[in-house]
Structures are given as C-alpha cells and as structure tokens.
Amino acid sequence: MTSKTFLLIAITFSFWSCSQPKWIISDSSSVKIAMDSTKNATADTAYIAWLKPYKQKVDAQMNEVIGYSAVTMRAHKPESLLSNFSADVYLKAASDYIKTPVDIAIVNLGGLRTQVPEGDITVRKVFELMPFENELVVLWLRGDKLLDLLNGFAAVGGQGVAGLRMTIQAGKATDITIGGKALDPQKLYSIATNDYLAGGNDNMPQLAMHEKRQNTSLKVRNVLLDYIKGETAAGRKIESRLDGRIRQNP
After folding, report:
1. Host H or E run for residue 55
2. Beta-carbon count within 10 A of 40 CB
C-alpha cells in the first residue's frame, strides 16, 4: 500500500467517523394507559376463552374466606391497628420458629399495601396486603444500634413495632422499654422482621449491622395466612387495638 493510498483511507475513515450523528434526548413524555374494563372491547376474545378456566380456578382460591376482622385496620403513624396486628404476628411466628421468645418485631408501614376492612378476610385480601415474596427473618442487634434505629423511627413519626414501647419527643425516641425494661445499649436484642428490612432498606441501615441472622424460609404472606386461619379455627375473630406502644408528645 502506497503512502497516498494509506492517507486517502485514513482521511475517508476519519470523515466517516466524524459524520455519524450523535443523538441526544431533548424532550420526553409518557402516557398512562389504564388496564381495566374500558379495554374489554379490544380484548382478544380467543385468548380470554382459553384463559377462562384457569382464571376461574385461581379466583376460587383467592376468594376463599379464611377469617373475619372485627375492625377496619389501616396503616398510619405513630402506631396503627394494621401495623400493630402485623408486627404482633411477626413476633409470634418468629418466637414459635426459634422456640424461644423474640424480643421485638419491626414492620415497615410502606410494606403494608392495603387496608383490611371490617368483615370477611379472603386469601386475595392477604395477597393485596402483602404482594411481595418477603421472608421472615430473625436478627440479633446490639442495643446502641437499636437506639439509633428507633431514633430514625421517631424522626419520621413512627413505624410498625411489637414488643417495645417508646415516646416520640422532639423527633427523638425516649422512654424506650423492651419487655418492660429500659433499653440496654450493650445488650443483644432479637428482632423479627422481613428480609427486605434486614438488608438495611427503607432507611433502616442499622438492621444490616446485626450480629447474627437466622432465616426462617417462611414467607411473610404465608405467616399471615396461617395466623388468620388458626384464629378462625379456634373460633376467634381477628382483633387489633391501639395500646400506646408508640406515643407522640408535642
């Protein structure tokens, strides 16, 4: 290859490389498309017919009534009927699993995705409440880290807890007791929670600083289902109450 030929190829390649368009996004927009009954007119009728027997089978399972709630339970701060109920179930299930009383339970309010109305409780309602595949886990956390965590709860106005009592005063957690005793910064406390929070998520990094962790392989949704079915079999309604486990002072 002569030097002139090489130069011509180099110039051509350089020109081709520089001439490629460089695309950038200058604007964007989106449209929300509702996937509901308004789309029935354009639905694939053949596919609907094929799907129908499967849907009927799933609906029969999801619409099964497994219990009765004596009150309407919603999640809110600083404590709520729904978060108290959920945390109490966590605490019982974890204690049963490790065969010794677990100190406290922690549930994130954001993980409770619907309310539970007074009346019949169906399997579907529990799936709506807990649509995730989260697992129940037990952590062991030092008291000083737990205090930091509870101060974080106080800063946002509360979270779902069981087994402890505290007061929110000027954005701080005060008067903390666990099992009726004042929180000990040096003690190792057992905590029932879900695997998502155990990873330090939802602004709970202290939970990822645990000294020990035990997975249970129990899905939180199944834990709730089993508890409700157990109460029903014993002839009891699902109950929850506000008991001042988190108090808010001005």
Report:
1. helix 45-62
2. 9
Q: Which two tokens stand for residue 78?
A: 């600083």
Which pair of tokens denotes residue 105?
């339970």
Look-up of token digits 């040096």: 186
Could you identify the residue written with the tokens 């081709």? 16
Please name which of 74, 123, 139 lies closest in space to residue 224, comparing C-alpha atoms.
123
For the question of whether the overall pTM of this predicted structure is more than 0.85, the answer is no
Distance CA 235, CA 130 (A): 24
As a whole number of angstroms, the distance between CA 105 and CA 160 comes to: 8
Question: Which pLDDT tens digits describe the chain residue by residue (250 residues)?
Answer: 555 555 555 555 555 555 566 788 888 888 888 878 887 888 888 988 998 999 999 999 999 999 999 999 999 999 999 999 999 999 999 999 999 999 999 999 999 999 999 999 999 999 999 999 999 999 999 999 999 999 999 999 999 999 999 999 999 999 999 999 999 999 999 999 999 999 999 999 999 999 999 999 999 999 999 999 999 999 999 999 999 999 999 7
CA distance from start to end of the chain: 87
Tell me the fold of 61-248: 5'-nucleotidase;  domain 2 (3.90.780)
The residue ranges of every structural domain in the chain are 61-248
What is the number of residues in the chain? 250
